[in-house]
């Protein structure tokens, strides 16, 4: 290939990939299979290997590649990033309309209603259509340069889809953690003994503050834009025009917005958005109402903090108000410190609560919570209540700041910061051991009935158990020394411990509490390696070859099994007769390992035959399309499954493509 041909092909490939990224990540309407996409991408990578001079910062291959940073550089915003005033009722909203119309001396000023996206504010700068910088809001005037991290967000175009892009374009919006992915990440974190993120916003903030862009790339952040910063070489007159322009430029924008020409329409729009909220891919805690005409906005101006031409309308949710008396610090299984609010008891959602999670210090700072404050508590998701805000008006000046502890409240070790989390690095910390014991014994792990919080506390406090392996050396006479332990319960416990030795090794792998290893992954690891010994000896490359094991998880496993203390633990467990074998039927390993495939339409062979081949390649055949489906194989006259797969964004493969994959 000549250089000229290479230049030409490079341009074609980059353009096609950009278009397919847009179709897939922004519109959610892919036109080609993942296979076909991978082929294009692979060709581009190969081409750039041969002609490295063709690599530009906006090439689709340049999303990840940055090295971990020491710290973020500061960026001064060309146009300050303001915040918004809030309203909490329709009457307050109408007061805002009054203020605007009075100031402009019009009967009504057309407005646009958009969802208020609860993410992390971001400003992205494009010069001549090429993405050059992303910055967080910071204090509104100066923010952090998070360009490397934002580059990894797949719905962000690295180059605008415009033939003649403006000289300078700063687009402002929100980085968010898609709800579906948030649930998954938190489930995994809980199973792996890590503190769950407080909410999607916190997950997005925590991810964006990572100094290592590779970690950011491994999390499915998304982005959406709604406002403008500095603009040169483009004239926009209204918000409607602006939103239309964003769409044309390939920039993600809110999927719904309302143009309102009178108060009635405005109230209807706000109510309709409230109905629609559960269906949106991000959390919305309200609506943003904006004057549509940008010239009128200038006439309205702004206060030091917020524009006078826009307002946020917050939707309410059931909360209780009570007094925060003190803050305690809980040490998790992996040593993470969680601040817990100790409050005056209050009735909330059917129960009385007196403790609530404050999640982490980033959340405390963001919400401005102090000891002595009247706070609002809300039930988070299922059970754990959380402190969501402060009744600032109720302050009397005696409130005290919440200071992060310097030492572990349990073992006294000096604590370390890891991003937004504070952690106790002492692996022998009794708090960590107690939690590990409970994790080890829980039903989904080794299933040792009778070993709950109280017993774990006693076993650790008396020194009977200094490592989980010590469980298997416990004797009747040891247990009888414990408080409230009769002969019968001691015997039952010893039996339960003995029985646990026979559990499948997948449960043992999960029970060990290796960071990042949840229940599902433990099963996959167990099946893949067949037994715990082989897993413990695996090299980094071998670990990374397991489906669903990325760089971070592989390192975590590798580090765990290289630690002499952990090796000793495994040796002892084996010595005491704990089962290390995978008892489940091993699925064959192949190109479809761990993948769930659904078939629709008529294929050239009977379905059973195709299903057998898929299973021989490690895959599983399911009958209905769901979010868990990895591929849909499409034959002739496909049924409704194809529509469903398109709706869910699940990649589609023809029979031919399947054959190519299997060969
Ligand atoms: S417009 C000049 N539109 O909410 C301010 N903001 O609480 C322009 N936000 O700082 C902001 N969704 O980070 C605007 N559709 C939307 C929004 C939105 C979320 C955020 C934004 C703002 C914060 C204020």
Automatic annotation (TrEMBL):
<dbReference type="GO" id="GO:0003911">
    <property type="term" value="F:DNA ligase (NAD+) activity"/>
</dbReference>
<dbReference type="InterPro" id="IPR010994">
    <property type="entry name" value="RuvA_2-like"/>
</dbReference>
<protein>
    <recommendedName>
        <fullName>DNA ligase</fullName>
        <ecNumber>6.5.1.2</ecNumber>
    </recommendedName>
</protein>
<dbReference type="Pfam" id="PF14520">
    <property type="entry name" value="HHH_5"/>
</dbReference>
<keyword id="KW-0862">Zinc</keyword>
<dbReference type="GO" id="GO:0006260">
    <property type="term" value="P:DNA replication"/>
</dbReference>
<feature type="active site" description="N6-AMP-lysine intermediate">
    <location>
        <position position="116"/>
    </location>
</feature>
<dbReference type="Pfam" id="PF03120">
    <property type="entry name" value="OB_DNA_ligase"/>
</dbReference>
<dbReference type="InterPro" id="IPR036420">
    <property type="entry name" value="BRCT_dom_sf"/>
</dbReference>
<dbReference type="InterPro" id="IPR033136">
    <property type="entry name" value="DNA_ligase_CS"/>
</dbReference>
<dbReference type="Pfam" id="PF01653">
    <property type="entry name" value="DNA_ligase_aden"/>
</dbReference>
<feature type="binding site">
    <location>
        <position position="290"/>
    </location>
    <ligand>
        <name>NAD(+)</name>
    </ligand>
</feature>
<feature type="binding site">
    <location>
        <position position="424"/>
    </location>
    <ligand>
        <name>Zn(2+)</name>
    </ligand>
</feature>
<feature type="binding site">
    <location>
        <position position="137"/>
    </location>
    <ligand>
        <name>NAD(+)</name>
    </ligand>
</feature>
<dbReference type="InterPro" id="IPR001357">
    <property type="entry name" value="BRCT_dom"/>
</dbReference>
<dbReference type="GO" id="GO:0003677">
    <property type="term" value="F:DNA binding"/>
</dbReference>
<feature type="binding site">
    <location>
        <begin position="34"/>
        <end position="38"/>
    </location>
    <ligand>
        <name>NAD(+)</name>
    </ligand>
</feature>
<keyword id="KW-0227">DNA damage</keyword>
<feature type="binding site">
    <location>
        <position position="429"/>
    </location>
    <ligand>
        <name>Zn(2+)</name>
    </ligand>
</feature>
<dbReference type="InterPro" id="IPR012340">
    <property type="entry name" value="NA-bd_OB-fold"/>
</dbReference>
<feature type="binding site">
    <location>
        <position position="411"/>
    </location>
    <ligand>
        <name>Zn(2+)</name>
    </ligand>
</feature>
<dbReference type="Pfam" id="PF00533">
    <property type="entry name" value="BRCT"/>
</dbReference>
<dbReference type="Pfam" id="PF22745">
    <property type="entry name" value="Nlig-Ia"/>
</dbReference>
<dbReference type="GO" id="GO:0006281">
    <property type="term" value="P:DNA repair"/>
</dbReference>
<keyword id="KW-0436">Ligase</keyword>
<feature type="binding site">
    <location>
        <position position="174"/>
    </location>
    <ligand>
        <name>NAD(+)</name>
    </ligand>
</feature>
<dbReference type="GO" id="GO:0005829">
    <property type="term" value="C:cytosol"/>
</dbReference>
<feature type="binding site">
    <location>
        <begin position="83"/>
        <end position="84"/>
    </location>
    <ligand>
        <name>NAD(+)</name>
    </ligand>
</feature>
<dbReference type="InterPro" id="IPR004150">
    <property type="entry name" value="NAD_DNA_ligase_OB"/>
</dbReference>
<keyword id="KW-0234">DNA repair</keyword>
<dbReference type="InterPro" id="IPR003583">
    <property type="entry name" value="Hlx-hairpin-Hlx_DNA-bd_motif"/>
</dbReference>
<feature type="binding site">
    <location>
        <position position="114"/>
    </location>
    <ligand>
        <name>NAD(+)</name>
    </ligand>
</feature>
<dbReference type="InterPro" id="IPR001679">
    <property type="entry name" value="DNA_ligase"/>
</dbReference>
<keyword id="KW-0235">DNA replication</keyword>
<comment type="function">
    <text>DNA ligase that catalyzes the formation of phosphodiester linkages between 5'-phosphoryl and 3'-hydroxyl groups in double-stranded DNA using NAD as a coenzyme and as the energy source for the reaction. It is essential for DNA replication and repair of damaged DNA.</text>
</comment>
<keyword id="KW-0460">Magnesium</keyword>
<keyword id="KW-0479">Metal-binding</keyword>
<dbReference type="GO" id="GO:0046872">
    <property type="term" value="F:metal ion binding"/>
</dbReference>
<keyword id="KW-0464">Manganese</keyword>
<feature type="binding site">
    <location>
        <position position="408"/>
    </location>
    <ligand>
        <name>Zn(2+)</name>
    </ligand>
</feature>
<dbReference type="InterPro" id="IPR013839">
    <property type="entry name" value="DNAligase_adenylation"/>
</dbReference>
<feature type="domain" description="BRCT">
    <location>
        <begin position="587"/>
        <end position="663"/>
    </location>
</feature>
